[in-house]
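We close this part of the discussion by returning to an individual protein. Part of our work consisted of pairing the sequence of a single chain with a tokenised description of its backbone. The amino acid sequence and the backbone structure tokens for this protein are reproduced below.
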Amino acid sequence: MRGHSSRSNGPAPRRSGPPGGGTRPDDARRSRRLVAGLLLGAAGAVDVLAGVSAVQADPYVVADDGFRHLDVTGWGWFQLATGVELLVAALVATIDRRAAALAAIGAGAFAVLLTVALFAYQPVERATSALLAAVAVWLLAGHLRATPRRRPAAPGGRGIN
């Protein structure tokens, strides 16, 4: 069509965010928290599923003189509880509080330690869960480094410097 152009004649649209593009530090911290929560939730789901399967069926292993029944019900319940703990930690990790991030880091570190104890029994599930939890702990530790500590106000109303 003649006389119509695809370019507008008005001013250029305003861009949100800092000059020069990029994201604000608050957005980067928020996305770190959310990704860490997602990873902790995925690790918790893996642990819950592996724990349920360990509680429902006890495996048999081959020994020198035949088959042996291996009772892992206790480990299964322990793994199931750890998975639920990680799912709760995933929700807590999304809260913008230093104590919440520390609690989520503690839960993720505990899950990694559990992986060391149970690795020989379920290597694929344990490696998957440990990798997800370790990356989440790394992201949350970076979030803590980027978050300034809030100092309590003095009784006179002035902050402590």
Notes: The longest strand covers residues 60-63.
